[in-house]
Amino acid sequence: MTTRHPSGSLGTARGTALYLGAILGPGVLALPGLAAAAAGPAAIVAWVALLLLSVPVAATFAELAARRPDAGGVATFTRAAFGDRTAAVCGWWFFSVIPVGASSAALVGAAYIADAAGLGRGAVVAVAAVLLATAFAANHIGLRLSGGAQLVLMGLLAALLAAACAAALPHFDPANLTPFAPMGVPGVLSAAAVLFYAFSGWEAASHLSGEFTDPARQLRRVTALALAVVAAIYLALAAATAGVLGSAAGSSATPLTDLLAYAFGPAAAPLTAVCAALLSLGAMNTFIAGASRLGAALARDGAMPAPLAKGHEPGRTPHRSLLVLAALTGTAFAGSTALGLGLDQQMRATSAVLAAVTVLACAAAVRLLTGRARRWALFATACTAAIATALTWYLLLPLVIAALALGYLRLRRRRARPLPPGPVEAVPVEA
Q1: What is the pLDDT of residue 6?
Q2: Which end of the chain is more exposed for a tag (fewer CB within 10 A), N or C?
Q3: Exposed (0-12), middle (13-18) or buried (19+): which is 421, by Cβ within 10 Å?
C-alpha cells in the first residue's frame, strides 16, 4: 500500500491547524452557555466525558485514515467494511449536514461580531453571508492557501482562548458550583448531546488524509497534537464557565466575551469579535474542504452524479463538488434565516447526523482493525451510540438522508440496467 503522496500539499503544521479548525469551531462561542442552560454546573461532567470519548474516537479515525488515505474519508472506511450501499449512506450523511453546520457556524460568529459593533439582526445575516463567502473563496483558491491561512488563524485563536481562561480562572468561586446538578442526570445527557457538536470534526478531517505528503507517518502525530490542544482549551473553558460565570453562563448570549472581560476589560467585545471570526472561518474552512473532496470521491465511486468527480485526486481542488456544496449551503442558510431556527436546534440537528457518521465509521473500524486499535474502536462505537440517544427525535434526520441516498442508488442502477432484447423479426427465406 502506498503511504506517500508526492502530490499532497499538507505537512504536519498545516495539517494540525486544519484538524484544530474542525474541532475548535464556533461551538466554543455558544456551547458553554447552551450546556450550562441544560445542566447547570454539572455541564462540566459532560465536557470531561466527551473529552475522554474523543481519545478513542480520534485514535480510531487516525488509524483508519493512515491505512486508507483517500478523499472519501468515512465513506472509504465504511465501503471497505460494509460495502457500497453503506458507504453511500455514510457519505451522504456527512455531505448533507455540512451546509447546516456551516450556516450555523457563520451565524454564531456573526452574532458575536454584530454584538461587538452594536449592530442589529439584519447585520448578523449580512456578516454571516460574508463569512461563508470567504470560506468558500479560500477553498476555491486551493488547500495550500487555506491550510496556511488556517495555521495563522489557529495560532491567534489559541492565544485568545488561553488569555481568556488564564485571566478568568483566578476568579473561580466554588460557590458557583452549587447546586451542582439542578437538572439531574437528564440535564447532563442533554448537555452532552448538544456538546457533541464541539467534539465532532475528526470525521471531517479524515477526508483530507489523501492531501498529506506522508499520511501513514503524519496523521497519528497530527491527531495527537490536535487532541492535546483541544483537551487543554476545553477543560480550561469548562472550568472557567462553571466556576467563574456560574448561573450567569446559562443566560449569557456571549459567555466568551464575559470571560475575556477579566483580561481585557472594555476591549473584550472587539477581541471576542476577532475570536468569533477566527473560529467560524477555521471550522468552515476544514469542513468545506473535507466535504467538497468527499462529494468528488462519492461521484467517483458512483454514489453521486459523475460530473462531480472531477478534481478528486490529491492535490487538486474539486471545483464542481465545491460549487454544489456552496449552493446547498446558501439554500440552508436562507432557509434557516427565513424560518428563524434557533442555534440550539441547528446544532442538535448537526450533532445528530455527525453522531450517526461517527458511529458507523467506528463500527467499520471494529471490522477493519485488530488488537488494541479494534478495542478502542469498539469502545468509541458503544459510547457514541449511547450519547446519540439523548438527541431523541433529531435522529430522524440521518434516517431521512439514508433513505434519499439509497433511493438515488436504486434510481441510478435502474437507469444503468440494459434494456431487455426486443422481439427477433423473422427473416424471409428465399425458396
Answers
A1: 44
A2: C
A3: exposed
